[in-house]
Amino acid sequence: MRAFRFLMPLAVAGVMSLPCQAEIGDAEAGEKVFQQCKGCHQVGAGAKHRSGPHLNGLFGRQAASLDDFKYSKSFQRAGAGGLEWHAETLDVFLENPRAMTSGTRMSFRGVKDPQDRAHLILYLRQFSDNPADIPEADPTAQAVDHDLDPAILALKGDPEYGAYLSGECTTCHQAAGSDEGIPSITLWPEDQFVVAMHAYKTKKRNHPVMQMIARRLGDEEIAALAAYFKDLEN
Amino acid sequence: MIFNRRTFLGTSAVAAASLAAPMVRAQGKPRVIVIGGGAGGATAARYIAKDSKGAVDVTLIEPTRTYYTCFFSNLYLGGIKEIDDLGHSYGGLAAGGVNVVHDWAVGVDRDAKTVTLAGGGSLPYDKLILSPGIDFVDGAVDGWDLSAQNAMPHAYKGGSQTELLKAQLKAMPEGGTFAMVAPPNPYRCPPGPYERVSMIAHYLKANNPTAKIIVADPKPKFSKMALFQEGWNNHYAGMVDWIGEDFGGGEVSVDPAAMTVTIDGEETKVDVCNVIPAMKAGRIAEIAGVTDGNWAPVNAIDMSSKADPDIHVLGDASQQGDMPKSGFSANSQAKVCANAVRGALTGSKVFPAKFSNTCWSLIDANDGVKVGATYEATAEKIAKVDGFISQTGETSDVRKATYEESEGWYAGITADMFGASV
Q1: Which end of chain B is more exposed for a tag (fewer CB within 10 A), N or C?
Q2: Which CATH number is B5-135+280-418 given?
C-alpha cells in the first residue's frame, strides 16, 4: 500500500483542539487500523457486503444509500435526514458509532484515538475515487476462501427451524447484533454463515465452544440457522 | 379472577396496558403462568410471548422489581463489577407482551389450575412454568439457619445478600480471616463457590493482603478444580486454605453469635463467614407438589414435571439429569420448554429438544476459564453429548479472551432473558 500523507480537513467542533499531528493521516497506518473493521466490512477490488456494507465509494455518499444492503432503521433515518459521509462525519461516527446512530447494528466501540481515526479515514478515502475498486470487479481471495461442497452451500434452510435453533446462539450472540466480546452473527450473509459453521465443525476455525456447538449441527440445521440470521430484524 | 392493581409492574402506562389488555384479550386465549423471573422463567415468558405473537396470554410472577443476577455477582465481590451492572428491570418483558406481576406465588391448585398470590387473588393457567431457583435445606450446616443470614450471609441469591457480604469483606480487620462453608452436590453454579474464593482473594490481595481464606468443603473435588488451584497458586500464593472432605471439610459447625467456625473439631475465630448450605428447589415447587426429595423431576424432552403434564420446571429447581444448575442451563431449558408449551397450546411446530451450557469463571482480573457441554433428551434424562474445558497453563492472551467472551455472554444472556430495555 502506498503511504502518501494527506491533510485531513477538520471542521468538527471538539476535534479542532487536537494536537496538529492528529490531522495528518497515513494510509498505511490506516490499513492496520482497518483490521478491526474487516470482520464486517470489505473495501477495495471486489468488496462485497458482509455483516456491514462494503466501503467503496463511501466519500460523498448519502448514508444508508446502497440499494442492496439492509440498513438498520436508525441509519435509514440518518440518511433520509441528510447524513453524508465525509471526513468530518466519519470522524464523529467512528469515534463512537452509537452516539451518532443509536440503533446501528454496528455496535463497534469506536476508534478513540483521533490519530488512528485520521489514518483510517485516509485509508478509506483511497477507495472512493478509483474506478477499479467498484464492487463489480472480480472477487478477491479474501471473499470466500473455502473447500466446502457446493451441494452444502446450495441447501435452502428452513428459517422457522432456524428460529428455534437460534435459541442456542442467542444466549451469547445478541440478536440485536452487539459484538462486545462475542461477535455479531445477525444479518450475516448466508454463504458466509454456512462456511464459518462448517469450518468450526472441521476444526479449521479454532474456538472450543463453537467447535462443540457446530459438531452436532447437521448440514440442514446450519442452513436453517443461516437462513434465519440473514434476515433477522429487531 | 381477582387482580390487585398494586401488584402490577412499573410505570403507570405499562401497568395500565398490562391490566387492560389481557383482561379483554384473554377470553378464549390459552394462558401460561411463569413463576420466577430469572434465567429460566424470564426467558420462557419472553420466548412464548414473542414467538406466539400474542396468541398466548403470558403472565410472569416475580416478587422483585429489579433482578440482580447471581451470575457475575462474584465479580462484584472482587471489585471488578458494580452492583448496578448486575441489576435488570422487567420493562423489556412488559414491552414484549408479558404481563409482569410483582408478587409472591404462595399456592398452586393443580385441580383447579390456579396460582394463588400473596397479595390476594388467584390466576388461572393452562400451562404453569415453575422456575423458582433454589432454597436452602434446613439444618444443612450445624448452627446455621436463615435467621443467621445477616451474621453469616449465604450470598447465593443475587441482590442484598451479595451486597451484605461485600460490606463485611470491606469491614474486615487487617490480616483477618474469611471462611466459606461450601455446599454439597448438587447445587447452583458448580464453579461458583470457587470463583467466589478467587474473587475474594483478588479483593483481599489489593486491600488486605495479609488476610486469610479458609474453605471448608464437604466434597473431595470440585468443578474446574485443577484450574482454580493453579490460579490460586499463581495469583494468591499462601492465602487460600481449602479443606476438602479428606481433611474433615464436611465436619463443620458454625456459631453465628460468636463468629466461630469449627472444622473437624477445631474451632477458629473468623471475621467474615459465608455459609453456602445444601440446596433444594425453590419452595413453590414443593408447594405445587412436584418435588421428589429436594428437587423436581422432569421429562428431558420438554422439561414437563413427572408429576403433572401441565407443569414444567426449569433451571436449578429441576432434576433433569446431566446439566449443571446454571443460568445458562436454565436459559437453554427455557427455550426447549417454550417451544413445547407453545406447540401444545397453539399447534405450532415442536422441534426436537437441544440443550447446551457453558460456565465461565474468573480467577483473577483477565484470567478467565470456561467449561461447557452439549446435551440431548433421552427417555431417562438430559444426557451429556460432548464437552470441553479450559486447560491449565494457557497463555494470558487466551485467558483474557475467555474473560472478554464471558462479558459478551453476560450481555447476551441478559438481553435474551429480559429483551430490549425500555
Answers
A1: N
A2: 3.50.50.60
- Of the residues A36, A171, A212, the best mutation for testing chain B's interface (the one with the most B CB atoms within 10 Å of its CB) is A171
List residues of B whose CB lies inside 8 A of any A CB. Answer: 47, 51, 328, 331-332, 335, 339, 349, 351, 354, 356, 358, 370, 372-374, 385-388, 404-409, 411-413, 415-416, 420
Pick the residue with more confidence: A204 or B22?
A: A204
From B196's Cα to the closest Cα of chain A, the distance in A is: 22
Q: What is the pLDDT of residues B2-17, one digit of tens each?
A: 444 334 443 344 434 4
- Of the pLDDT bands very low, low, confident and very high (cuts 50, 70, 90), residue B351 is very high
Q: Flag whether residue A176 sits within 8 Å of chain B, measured between CB atoms.
A: yes
Q: What is the pLDDT of residues B242-292, one digit of tens each?
A: 999 999 999 999 999 999 999 999 999 999 999 999 999 999 999 999 999
Sign of the alpha-carbon torsion through A38, A40, A41, A45: positive
Find out whether B272 and B168 touch, Cβ atoms under 8 Å.
yes
Q: Which residues of A touch B335 (CB under 8 A)?
A: 164, 167-168
Contact A168 B354 (CB under 8 A): yes
CB contact under 8 A, A209 and B372: yes
Contact list, B346 vs chain A (CB under 8 Å):
none
φ, ψ dihedrals at B421, nearest 5°: -75, 155
Residues 6+ apart with CB under 8 A from B100: B8, B9, B10, B18, B37, B59, B60, B62, B90, B93, B94
Q: B166-189, pLDDT tens digit by residue?
A: 999 999 999 999 999 999 999 999
C-alpha cell at B125: 393457567
Tell me, yes or no, if A180 comes closer than 8 A to chain B by beta carbon.
Answer: yes
Distance between CA A226 and CA A197 in Å, rounded?
A: 9
Q: Which residues of A touch B385 (CB under 8 A)?
A: 216
Instruction: Locate the domains of chain B by residue range.
Output: 5-135+280-418, 140-277
Other C-beta atoms closer than 10 Å to the C-beta of B59 total: 22
What structural domains does chain A harbor?
A: 5-133 (1.10.760.10), 150-229 (1.10.760.10)
Contacts of A161 in chain B (CB under 8 A): 351
Let me know the angle formed at the C-alpha of B196 by B190 and B201, rounded to the nearest 5 degrees: 145
What pLDDT, in 10s, does the model give residues A8-51? 444 443 444 343 334 567 888 999 999 989 888 999 888 888 88
Contact B420, B92 (CB under 8 A): yes
Structure confidence at residue A130 (pLDDT): 52
User: Which residues of chain A are within 8 Å of residue B331 when distances are taken between CB atoms?
Assistant: 171
Of A163, A208, A216, the CB nearest to B385: A216
- Vertex A204, ends A200 and A210: CA angle to 5°? 25
The three grid cell numbers given for residue A144, joined into one nine-digit string: 470466500
Q: Do A172 and B408 form a contact (C-beta atoms < 8 A)? A: yes
Contact B413 A209 (CB under 8 A): no
Q: What's the rounded Cα separation, in Å, for the pair A62 and A55? A: 12
Burial A63-73 (b: 16+ CB within 10 A, else e): bbbbeeeebbe
